[in-house]
Amino acid sequence: MAMDWMPVVITLPDAEATYALGHYLGQHLPIGTVILLMGDLGSGKTTLVKGLAAALGITEPINSPTFTLINEYEQGRLPLYHVDLYRLEAAAADQLYLESYWDGSEFVPGIMAIEWSEHLGHHPPEPLELRLSYHDAGRQATLRPSTPCQAALLETLPDAILANEI
Ligand SMILES: Nc1ncnc2c1ncn2[C@@H]1O[C@H](COP(=O)(O)OP(=O)(O)O)[C@@H](O)[C@H]1O
Ligand SMILES: [Mg+2]
Predict the structure, then answer these.
(1) What are the phi and psi torsion angles at 151 (to 5°)?
(2) Is the minimum distance from the CB of 10 to ligand 1 under 6 angstroms?
(3) Is 116 a domain residue?
(4) What is the pLDDT of residue 159?
(5) Cβ of residue 8 lying under 6 Å from some atom of ligand 1
(6) Is residue 82 part of a domain?
(7) How do 111-115 and 8-11 pair as beta strands?
């Protein structure tokens, strides 16, 4: 039976908070994690990936791979695979064979971050879902774990992240 964990909601008052959340995840997520990023244009997906990349020790500039579709960064502690499916429909997204990144068949395992993962036809087995949204009260991230390890990580987020003090 698939386990269901409570989602964790974090308020993100400014871009630094989004970056800090990405940075924390980059420090703590296990190798092989696929982050499904969801949220409108401008909601902070790339900002979060910038924090993630910095935590992995990547110093190259990070931009949305809107046209290249996949950017691979290999200079850090773990490889980062950054995907942007904004321009693709599910059928076209499936033709990218992204599973060759997450099943270990072709690429060195690392961390994968997929912007516009709403456009994915099929999902990786144990993704970390991260939805960025706007509300009257401000912006927030909703994180939905799918493994005990991800759930434990979210349960132990430091107060500094929850209170946006980093
Ligand atoms: N929590 C936030 N509050 C305010 N502005 C933010 C926040 N997160 C990101 N931004 C800003 O929003 C803009 C768009 O962010 P970006 O990460 O490019 O979004 P996306 O990749 O989702 O289109 C950037 O100028 C970024 O600095
Ligand atoms: Mg982007």
Answers:
(1) -65, -40
(2) no
(3) yes
(4) 85
(5) no
(6) yes
(7) unpaired
Reference 18, options 61, 52, 64; nearest CA is 52
- Token pair of 152 as six digits: 């434990």
pLDDT (0 to 100) of residue 4: 79
Distance CA 101, CA 106 (A): 6
Ligand 1, residue 37: give the atom nearest the CA: 22
Question: Which CATH number goes with the domain that contains 53?
Answer: 3.40.50.300
* Structural domain boundaries, residue 24: 8-162
Domain count within the chain: 1
DSSP, res 104:
S
Token readout for 14 is 């400014």
Residues 133-155 pLDDT 10s: 998 889 999 999 999 999 999 99
Reading the block at residue 116, the tokens are: 């516009």
